[in-house]
Design brief:
The protein is of the alpha/beta class. The protein is built from five helices and seven strands; from the N terminus they run βααββββββααα. 34% of the residues lie in helices and 24% in strands. Helix 1 packs antiparallel against helix 2. This is PTS IIA-like nitrogen-regulatory protein PtsN. InterPro entries: PTrfase/Anion_transptr (IPR016152), PTS_EIIA_type-2_dom (IPR002178), PTS_SugarTrans_NitroReg (IPR051541).
């Protein structure tokens, strides 16, 4: 299994003032590093207007911006920890605005794996301690280790069948 997590896709203390700025920040990086082709950030921004991705988390809101795999070269999950909360509209309730403290762009190449990854991300969203550790970390390698369970092939199992580690 190809790793979804890369230190180059973790942006800490990001100075972004809007959902669109955050999406474009990561979109530019994804394009520069060869994960997506030109136009990907535009596509994610357009989708965000119609199908917002803000979600209330266990202790604060996060966003999972994504789009269809048309412009994806290889899959990834990014992490943006904004300096100040960023407003995203809430998934399923676009009239509701959330102050998002963690943005995790999902770069999905295989549409069939999208639902599985989103389900796994729901576990991350529900874990207040994990979210806080990610948000407070200043080490991209530590964030990758904290998020390693999202690379599971099946619930409770890492790629290759190894049991998922407990996150404390």
């Amino acid at each position: 299994m190809t790793s979804l997590l890369h230190t180059d896709l973790i942006i800490l203390d990001a100075e972004v003032a809007s959902a669109e700025e955050a999406i474009r920040l990561m979109g530019d990086r994804l394009e520069k590093l060869g994960f997506v082709t030109e136009g990907y950030a535009d596509m994610v921004c357009d989708r965000e207007k119609t199908y917002p991705t803000g979600l209330p988390g266990a202790s604060w809101a996060i966003a999972l911006p994504h789009t269809d795999p048309t412009l994806v070269i290889r899959p990834a999950v990014g992490v943006i920890v904004p300096r100040e909360p960023v407003e995203f509209k809430m998934m399923g309730a676009p009239d509701t605005t959330l102050d998002v403290r963690l943005i995790m762009p999902l770069v999905i190449k295989d549409a069939n794996s999208q639902l599985s990854l989103l389900k796994t991300m729901m576990g991350v969203i529900a874990d207040a301690q994990l979210l806080e550790r990610i948000r407070r970390s200043r080490d991209p390698r530590e964030i990758i280790e904290l998020l390693r369970p999202i690379e599971c092939d099946e619930p409770g199992r890492m790629s290759g069948g190894t049991p998922r580690p407990k996150i404390r």
